Predict the structure.
Amino acid sequence: MSGLWASRRPFWPWSWSRGDATQTESSPLVPKEGQAATVGESLYGPVGDAEPRYDGGGGGGDSEENQGSSSQSDPKTFTPRRRRGSGYSLGDHCLKLLLFASNLLFSVLGMVVLCLGLWGLVTKESFARERVGGLGTDPMLAFVALGALLSALCLSGCVGALRENGRLLRGFAAAVLALIAAQVLAAIAAFSLRGEAGGYLRSGLLVAMARYRDDLDLRFIVDEMQTGLECCGADDYRDWEVNIYYNCSAPGVLACGVPATCCVAPLENGTVWNSQCGVGAQALDVFSAQSAVFLGGCLGATARWVERHSAAIGAAGVVVLGVQILTLSAAARLLDTIQWHKAYSRGLPR
């Protein structure tokens, strides 16, 4: 009964039109005589094959005549030939090492910046209950945020390159691409709003001057700006009237004065810091005050500093952007190589 069932072939609609002539020796789907099919071998050949070898089958018992006739009769049927070695080129190894070393270097740099910011917060006791409200103005937070972002980003790229982890490399490449886009948008916004930048800077500086005696972090920023740029106030030295302690109607000894960082020579006898050198400076006329304090404001000094160093700032921006683009290209290239070798190890078509 089983033999009768095996001899009866099911009727399909296409079998009537094509007949049995399709299953002949000329069909590439039927192995020819003397060609033993390898168990578990896929259409693309054994695992690890990469280069095509044109023949009619994959068996090791074929004769040269059968192989030649099979390749001539059906040149489209082929199985890849095994590639020797792992397939990694010298350029791939150099790219992997370069990406790992650069990300490791920047990871260490980010950790140093992060530790510096945390040290500053702990030293100044910024996490104390009475200072948590003013934590947002602490410049150490910028170091903490920058260090944490740089460390996390570069560590993902470093580990991804070392372990050939596709997910980490994809996340690293996406973060670098987002960072590049943010920098480009920030540059476009700064260029388009360059006329209003002076107003924003003036407002921020006046707020910092008004809170100069109450906020140590803002005092540090203002003192560094006035000392480094040799300026006083926003537009001129009389802008310090916005502070309640330096206002001319204030009852204290600081009334109608300016901070010591506005003084031309704040050191008495060149060695001792004179904190009272700016007392009464706002009451002096321009001719008398020019020998004691800086007359020009910090807004004009900042504009002149940017103008003098515009070439260096532009070059630094181009270099940073170029390094990020090269890093993104290297990560994409390494990710593509890793995906290729994963497909190579599985015997899938590339």
User: Anything to note?
Assistant: The chain has eleven helices and four strands.
